[in-house]
Amino acid sequence: MRTLIGRWQTWAGFGIAAVLLFGVAPLVFSEFRLSLLGKFLCFAIVAVGIGLAWGRGGMLVLGQGVFFGLGGYMMGMHLKIADAQVFGNDVPDFMQIAGVRELPGYWAPFASPAFTLLAIVLVPAAIAAALGFGVFKRRVKGAYFAILSQALAAALAILLVGQTSLGGSNGLNRFRTFFGFTLNDPANRRMLYFIAAGVLLIVVAVVRQLMQSRYGELLVAVRDGEERVRFLGYDPANIKVVAYTVAALFASVAGALFAPIVGFIAPSQVGILPSIAFLIGVAIGGRTTLLGPVLGAIGVAWAQTLFSERFPSEWTYAQGLLFIVVVGFFPAGFAGLAVLFKRRRKAKDSAEAESEKEPDAEKVGATP
């Protein structure tokens, strides 16, 4: 009975989220705000993966900007080639300005939409799996893993800045089409928002299924007692690799959606700062819960947009202070507070119910 109620609650939650994302938001927000919300949904997709790897697996991933950037750049390369073909050019516009007349060899495969979509899924997942096996098999964890992942993000950002064939520090921008659809058309931009919303719901459903499965239990067990899991006959490295790969896949898909929604992808979205920003949203929302990372990522991104317009220099300090307060005093995030209050209320109700069941001592003594 309890399982059936839980399933109905889950379906009801997904139904409410779908109504809000697909029905209410397009009616309430303007085209600009709806596109902005689509951008935030991309951040939420990354946050869901971080919640799985960090919240459930205990892996402090400080380099998700790497996979976010890989997905964004691969999508951007395809969009630039498609734009050049529309105007009858052999190379994208920024290459023409630089005097390049022939498309670089590693660009050519991204002229195919099918190859681009497969690369967005397979390349980051393969890199994450290879890196995960190399790191976790050597039992690298904790701060060492966090520093390593952050170093990879910094290295990729520096590498991209020096690549003129990828736009250098400016990155890839001014996308005009998306798989044959004109991005200047408001209907097509709304379509991109709907795609991002649908992907977010799918990602949340996948992570929920993983959390409810035996694998989810093993992942939590590895987080809380890795040596005990190894003693029981399981390899913690394999369990970690799966979570790390799934998180990388989600980040890549989010980056691929981010590029056409925002209209550019640059090294500034790949390095250390965006990777930490992803982490802040997850920590504030609640990394151990399912919806905490989603709400935290959207809330932090929205607050950053809102307050940075009025207080551009103060927002960075406010964001850092909020992160310190949450990590120091509310390690489970704001979603964890709700769970804590629910548990305390349940315990209080149970105590009151037990006290009502206890017979009055005087009445018992007075009974012959």
UniProtKB/TrEMBL annotation:
Q: Which residues form a coiled coil?
A: none
Region annotation Disordered: where it falls in the sequence: 349-368
- Name the record gives this protein: Urea ABC transporter membrane protein
Indicate where this protein resides in the cell: Cell membrane
PANTHER family recorded = HIGH-AFFINITY BRANCHED-CHAIN AMINO ACID TRANSPORT SYSTEM PERMEASE (PTHR30482), SLR1201 PROTEIN (PTHR30482:SF4)
The UniProt entry, under InterPro entries, shows:
ABC_transp_permease, ABC_transptr_urea_perm_UrtC, LivM-like
Q: Name one GO cellular component term.
A: plasma membrane
Work out whether the entry's keyword set contains Transferase.
Answer: no
Under Pfam families, the record lists: BPD_transp_2
MF terms in GO: branched-chain amino acid transmembrane transporter activity
Membrane-related topology note? Multi-pass membrane protein
Bilayer-crossing regions: 12-30, 36-54, 61-79, 114-136, 143-162, 191-211, 237-258, 264-283, 290-308, 320-341
Main location (coarse class): membrane
